[in-house]
Write a structure and sequence with these properties.
- By secondary structure, the chain is α/β, with parallel strands linked by helices.
- It folds into two domains: 15-62; 67-204, Aspartate Aminotransferase, domain 2 (3-Layer(aba) Sandwich).
- The protein contains six helices and seven strands.
- Strands 1-7-6-5-4-2-3 form a seven-stranded mixed sheet, sandwiched between helices.
- α6 (158-167) links the parallel β4 and β5 (171-175).
- α3 packs parallel to α4.
- The chain is globular and about 55 Å long.
Length: 205
Amino acid sequence: MQVYLDNAATTAIDPEVLDAMKPYMLTHYGNPSSIHAHGRQARSAIETARKKVANLLNTSPAEIFFTSGGTEADNTAIICTLQSGNFQQAITSKIEHHAVLHTLQYLEKKGKIAISYVNLDQNGSVNLDHLEELLSSNGPALVSLMQANNEIGNLTDIKKVGEICSEHQCIFHSDTVQAVAHYAHTVWWALPISFMAQKAWAFSI
């Protein structure tokens, strides 16, 4: 007997999802950027999906950006933030997903940023007091801390982290890929987060 325990990374498609997607795989496959009828039909489906996601997250459709996956969402948020803002510092932890950690380390190697690593306790949880210290001693920074760790399952209080970052006028990015299916995410006013990366999308507020 085979037992599959990697559903957080990828899982079987729900039959309802498959049924919903079939028409766009078999019939309505037009380029959504085209102006012909097939393209407009595909574009309409994408915008309908964008509105549904926005409703689930209690935010505006204009805040939803579809990507190919969580890694692209993380990379987009991190790289665009560092390129467009006056940030020479990044604060993260040593147990972040490689989509975040390797990207930041690559940028540091290129001389774009300096990375500070927040301390973790013996269970792998973020030390929020040390985060406060790092933010107080550094200039404007991009903080990237995941909500649920993909290896050990630790949960970070992203609302509290967001509040700390707001006090120090920093940008907060959170990889919430592992948590989105298990916890409600109400953004816009409830979570002081600048960017969140979720399974196949990222959104900014």
